[in-house]
């Protein structure tokens, strides 16, 4: 075999390997997108839980909650009013536009939730941290069970991450009034983005387990 044909064979093998990898990644993405999309509008509420965890997102300014924050916190307040839980944990740290939890507290306060029934978690910068730090706050108060609130596209991944952290998730509730869900283009982008985030989380968890 001459050098030219040897190099050509190596490139063919490399090409087949890359093609196989792309097919594998494409199938994995399709599966993740199906999981996120098919569960997006599902919900499960128990008779009661100890606390409702509202997952953080970015405010407009430090004193002006963003549309996502208004949608999520308002959905949680609806559950609170219906008696599904007596307490809220609003979770999210510094975003560059203010501390997320504090902005959501504005929404909860304006809706009539007493400050004594609202706990702020002000450190988290991603969903896993939202849940991990909230779990610590729950342990300090002897709270066991939670209902998760976020946009529909986010809830599947959040439920997986909560389960991996050992949280007792009794229910979840979709916040659908925000622009990221009401706007078709924004909704599509967020479904794709969260599917990719799910893949990243699963791959990171798998590597950590090896």
Q: Given the helix and strand composition, which structural class is it?
A: alpha/beta
Helix content: 55-70%
Q: Provide the succession of SSEs.
A: HEHEHEHEHEHH
The end-to-end distance, rounded to whole angstroms, is: 40 Å
Please write the CATH class name: Alpha Beta
CATH superfamily: HUPs
Total count of strands: 5
**Do you know the CATH topology?**
Rossmann fold
Radius of gyration over C-alpha positions, nearest whole angstrom: 21 Å
Please mark out the parts with pLDDT under 50 across 5 or more consecutive residues, or reply none. none
User: What topology, given as strand order, has the largest sheet?
Assistant: 3-2-1-4-5
| Helical run tally | 7
Q: Write down the overall geometry.
A: elongated
Number of discrete domains: 1
Strand content: 5-15%
